[in-house]
Amino acid sequence: MGYQENYQRWADEATLIPELKQELAAMANDEETKEEAFAAPMAFGTAGMRGIIGAGIGRMNIYTVRQATEGLARFMDTLPAEQKAAGVAISFDSRYESENFAHQAAGVLGAHGIKSFVFDSLRPTPELSFAVRYLKTYAGIMITASHNPKQYNGYKIYGPDGGQMPPDESDRITDYVRSVEDVFAIKVVVEHALRDKQLETLIGEDVDQPYYQAVATVTIDPELIHTIGKDMSLIYSPLHGTGRIPAQMVLRNAGFEKYELVLKQAIADPEFPTTPFPNPEFAQTFDLAIEMGKASHADVLIATDPDADRLGTAVWTGEGYQLLTGNQIASLMLQYILQARKMAGTLPKNGAVVKSIVSTELATAIAKDYGVTMINVETGFKFIGDQIKHFEETGEHEFLFGFEESYGYLIKPFVRDKDAIQSTLLLAEVAASYKREGLTLWDGIQALYNKYGHFAEKTVGVDFEGVDGAKEMAALMTKFREHQPSDFAGVKVASVEDYKAQQITKADGSTTAIDMPVSDVLKYILDDGTWIAIRPSGTEPKVKFYVGTSAGSKDDAAKKLDAFEAALTAFRTEA
């Protein structure tokens, strides 16, 4: 059906909830909005779905949430009885409709006789991952749009290992989701009936405390915290999200006593009134923390996004506060972990670090220096989780650290997704280690550059909003594949890694296979070691462009970065 027919189907539905009826009436004469909401269903893939809250098959509402859950339930109906009986853990963040969506999901599962374990209030994404493993459920559902603006919400499915559902299972669930012909006919059991039938259990402190105990094991040097960390000034912001209670709890339990909350951002407010983009990689999110930091001479400022899976930081430079990139934060944490374990004699011979293919090579240089294997995986933390599972099954490596440049880190694998609560605790400890030497985290990253080379990276996102956005993104990727650039800024392309074709093509035309899952990513390796990557975002209507380079000095690295970015933009925009 076309978007007009889809719209009319919803407008004619007698059971449609009043709020959505009002929205439909408001867009009756707005063809552009109507088309965006009803032209196509939301994409549902390995990262679940994410979109604007509102009426329509392409928006987040109780009917699209029910449809997604019906797909999961139909898939679980095909499983062996013991797997289906394990049930599903469900959590939600502070966004509009999140709690409602969580209980809608439980009601759909209950209609299939599937138990749900629903948190009694908002909890972080990493704790949902932990809950799946701790409760031994078959799956998990997290209602969140992570760091997106307030208009958005989302739905993520986790598998039995606590990682995002693997591609094979996710593809089958997607098929079941798409097989739902009438979203208004999906059966939903109301909450009191679920409780009566013991198909829904509320969870809270019984999972919180084991999670906090697990996070406490992230600390490497407790004595450092008790001597230096307890007096270190730290400011923390949960950006109106789920991190407030768990971050405070783990900091306090570890012995950090002088932390302060950014009070205006400690309120779990779905409006995100102090920051329209609640993303800790954006400078504006730190404005309030910096004001407080200047007043109290804080050593480090930390912010986590609304579902507390990403972490950003601003550190004192001697002249003011400077935001670190996700790559810099990861490099500091990695070097601390490896050095501390080397000094303690606990650095394993088969240790491994896992990072995405678009993350900094500074981490590779650090790992090599400590005799640790670096493993690159495709973008998406589920692929880091897959490696952890492989290590456990084969004993091939011991996991030491995993990260993505997009401000996501994992220190210990009792969680199988990025974990900003773990990261808050470890970063505070890293800051304390530098403070013991009279240094700051800013001094620390400069020391790494002086030792390993000046690495510089940049990520640029190009938005493709509207009905034709997906087609425009696909056309751009086709352009790069069909008109392969031979150089960028005068530096020749040595090889092209095409993760969709699963092939590496060298400048001489020779090819080798890529043994990774199929993914729409292109990565160019240049003669000077610079790399450039292009990929459509899995969660937002944008194409991301990445550049990573290095040089003997900060200024030279910055000049190279600017030149490559300009060359990439020129190629992208030329007719």
Automatic annotation (TrEMBL):
Limits of the Alpha-D-phosphohexomutase alpha/beta/alpha domain: 42-180, 228-314, 326-452
Pathway connected to this protein: Lipid metabolism; Glycolipid metabolism; diglucosyl-diacylglycerol biosynthesis
Cofactors: Mg(2+)
Alphabetical list of CDD domains matching this protein: PGM2
Entry keywords, A to Z: Carbohydrate metabolism, Glucose metabolism, Isomerase, Magnesium, Metal-binding, Phosphoprotein
UniProt EC number: 5.4.2.2
Cited SUPFAM superfamilies: Phosphoglucomutase, C-terminal domain, Phosphoglucomutase, first 3 domains
Catalytic activity: alpha-D-glucose 1-phosphate = alpha-D-glucose 6-phosphate
Transferase keyword on record: no
Domain Alpha-D-phosphohexomutase C-terminal per the UniProt entry, residue ranges: 493-550
Molecular-function GO term, any one: isomerase activity
Alphabetical list of Pfam families matching this protein: PGM_PMM_I (PF02878), PGM_PMM_II (PF02879), PGM_PMM_III (PF02880), PGM_PMM_IV (PF00408)
UniProt record similarity statement: Belongs to the phosphohexose mutase family.
The protein, known as: Phosphoglucomutase
Protein's organism: Lacticaseibacillus mingshuiensis
